[in-house]
Amino acid sequence: MSERTAETETGNSAAIAEAFADGPAYVPYLAVGDPSYEASLEYVRALDRGGADVIELGLPFSEPIAEGSTIQGALVRSLDAGMTPDRFFAFAEEVDVDAPLVCMTYYNLIYQYGTEAGEAGSASEANGAAASETGPRAFVERAAAAGIEGLVVPDLPAEEADPLREACDEFGLDLVFIVAPTTVGDRLDRIMGRVSGYVYVQARLGTTGARDDVSDQTTESLDRLAEYDVPKAVGFGISAGEHAERIVSGGADGIIVGSALIDIVAEGVEGDLPTAEVADRLEALSRELKEGAERGYAARIGAAESR
Amino acid sequence: MSETESTTSEAGELSRRPGRERGRDDGKFGRYGGQYVPEALMPAIEELTDAYERYVLGNEDGFMDEFRERLADFGGRPIPLQRADRLSERYDTDVFLKREDLLHGGAHKLNNALGQVLLAKYMGKERIIAETGAGQHGTATAMAAAHLDMPCEIYMGERDINRQRPNVFRMKLNGAEVNPVTAGRGTLKEAISETMRDWATTVENTHYVIGSIVGPHPFPVMVRDFQAVISEEMREQSLERTGALPTDVVACAGGGSNTMGSFAAFVDDDEVALHAVEAGGSTLEVDEEAGVAPNSASLYTGEEGVLHGARTKLLQDSDGQIMESHSISSGLDYAGVGPELAYLVDEGRVNPVAVDDDAALEGFHRLSSTEGIIPALETAHAFGFLEEHHEDLGERVIVNVSGRGDKDLDAAIEETDKRDIDEAPDMSMFTGGI
């Protein structure tokens, strides 16, 4: 494992550390370019207005094996509309929001980036030698230049992550790992030895997707992670303010919400709704989730103080 | 060296040679292989790795004995090595056919499916899932699951379901549920992704029977070890028949399970040339704009990348998005290939060749009319190779007849209609009749 030269106690990005510093973090996810570049600029700005503390931006891969049908649908719409890694980076540069941005994508796109001469992010690779080598460095360098503060790579296990971890440390990005209800023992140690920024706590088994209930597996996962300092953000299946409240009162430092937001985007596509109307609904759900998280946090602090 | 060793070449001995040990400990074949899967699947992968080591490598509880017994009784092994008299004459060399088309189900697929379903039983799993492209792996898995009394669900791309209706019916006859996959183009790679998603929610009671030497460790080594019975028999039969090892072994390659099955026992025999024949499709040119490679030649033209849990050679665009592949044979129609084959190609041990749709279809007709064997369109690629490259081969060539062609008759009629092929029967007077 590489030695980290973290700027904060829990990671490289000061902005991400700050997002988790006072109160619970609301971390929404959207696929960039779904259903179009222009519309998703408005949607991501709506999340920011709705109180996002960190925003996860999905860069679509053609074979997203970790996603359920909702997010897969979003990624397909985005790819069909012509999304590429370079357009993604242009988006990150243009979007201009307060919340720090985290890129969520699959390893092959990171690994291939900048491998073909003349392709991809030429400005930052003008100095060259790295441009002809496969490996994660060129992608991370370009991401850093575009203002991305962290990465989540759902198909990259800790065992294969050292080259990416080193590149993230070189360019000041955080590398977020997902911990499943079934992650225990040595595997948990290996992951927690490499994670920075925050850890993505998968609330239950399965792929992403909004569900009505919040699993007991969440509480167990949070208990298992209690000894680690890095902030714990719980994802998978959160779709309403009361879920957010329960999860944060149960000990989460943040909530990650994807499918419930993408459902709104998908309804907009199906109903051919105006971009502004979809953006308003995204902002409204964001407020609900953020307020729910804050109620949960207040309840937790209150309970701790009355003890 | 091989001459002295080979006289005592029990399957057990072969399976301990260096070539077969590769990948067993850490799933790495040089730079290829690995376990690129979502964290939620890791415990299942680790549990499977443990079971592979205990039951397959260690023969715990007599697993391998039961596997071989069932391959014999249910599958019909050993499978004959037949001399192809007309082809031998045509090419002025001894051509032998390994008749995997005679295995129960009509293709080599059962070797792996039976092994994995049996392993699932030993592991105490209660449910089987699998993906299928052409339907061959799906039908083999459904047969094995029925044989071993396990509930079974098969994921299949919607487009493939429409192309392969008889195979869908066969799976259902054996009691399997067939789940259509509508995502993407609705073919094999979408079906693999969908099966992985199912597995991510059901790992505790479900085993995923992957259909080729692809995916995360331990699948590539485990599937190879189940399929290696093909080359173990070939080796023994060749020595018995001719007193020598073959000079060349030829097998078609999509994901690569019949390929590695045909090569595994020969990898350490440097004097045996190994030819992996890929689908050259209509052309090896790539349409980057449309994201389409009109072929499935990932060994021959692919670039290193990560797909479906492993680092291997892939058909991908310059961003790393996976291309839509194409072949006249849906069983070869896959944008990736087993990591072990990618490694053996880089090492120069395996010779990758591409044979296009036309040459494959001619091979299909040639074997049918001259030897009385109708091969699968996948297998037909190996015979296209033989026609084009027989002058470069040695005096004892084994071709693996990976499957029979009954499933492909509709496609063969349609494709033959578009071309002018010498050996092909004229079906024009029967139009609309079949």
UniProtKB/TrEMBL annotation, chain A:
One of its GO terms (molecular function) is tryptophan synthase activity. It catalyses: (1S,2R)-1-C-(indol-3-yl)glycerol 3-phosphate + L-serine = D-glyceraldehyde 3-phosphate + L-tryptophan + H2O. Its EC number is 4.2.1.20. Signal peptide: none annotated. It is an enzyme of class 4 (lyase). InterPro entries: Aldolase_TIM, RibuloseP-bd_barrel, Trp_synthase_alpha_AS, Trp_synthase_suA. Keywords: Amino-acid biosynthesis, Aromatic amino acid biosynthesis, Lyase, Tryptophan biosynthesis. Pathway: Amino-acid biosynthesis; L-tryptophan biosynthesis; L-tryptophan from chorismate: step 5/5. The active site is at residues 56, 67. It holds the Pfam family Trp_syntA. Belongs to the TrpA family. The alpha subunit is responsible for the aldol cleavage of indoleglycerol phosphate to indole and glyceraldehyde 3-phosphate. Tetramer of two alpha and two beta chains. This is Tryptophan synthase alpha chain. It comes from Halorubrum yunnanense. The gene is trpA.
TrEMBL record, chain B:
The beta subunit is responsible for the synthesis of L-tryptophan from indole and L-serine. Tetramer of two alpha and two beta chains. It catalyses: (1S,2R)-1-C-(indol-3-yl)glycerol 3-phosphate + L-serine = D-glyceraldehyde 3-phosphate + L-tryptophan + H2O. Its cofactor is pyridoxal 5'-phosphate. It is an enzyme of class 4 (lyase). Belongs to the TrpB family. It comes from Halorubrum yunnanense. InterPro entries: Trp_synth_b_CS, Trp_synth_beta, Trp_synth_beta/beta-like, TrpB-like_PALP, TrpB-like_PALP_sf. Its EC number is 4.2.1.20. Residues 75-403 form the Tryptophan synthase beta chain-like PALP domain. HAMAP family: Trp_synth_beta. Keywords: Amino-acid biosynthesis, Aromatic amino acid biosynthesis, Lyase, Pyridoxal phosphate, Tryptophan biosynthesis. It comes from the Archaea. GO terms for molecular function: tryptophan synthase activity. Residues 13-29 have a biased composition (Basic and acidic residues). Pathway: Amino-acid biosynthesis; L-tryptophan biosynthesis; L-tryptophan from chorismate: step 5/5. The modification N6-(pyridoxal phosphate)lysine is found at residue 109. This is Tryptophan synthase beta chain. Residues 1-31 are annotated as: Disordered. Residues 1-10 have a biased composition (Low complexity).
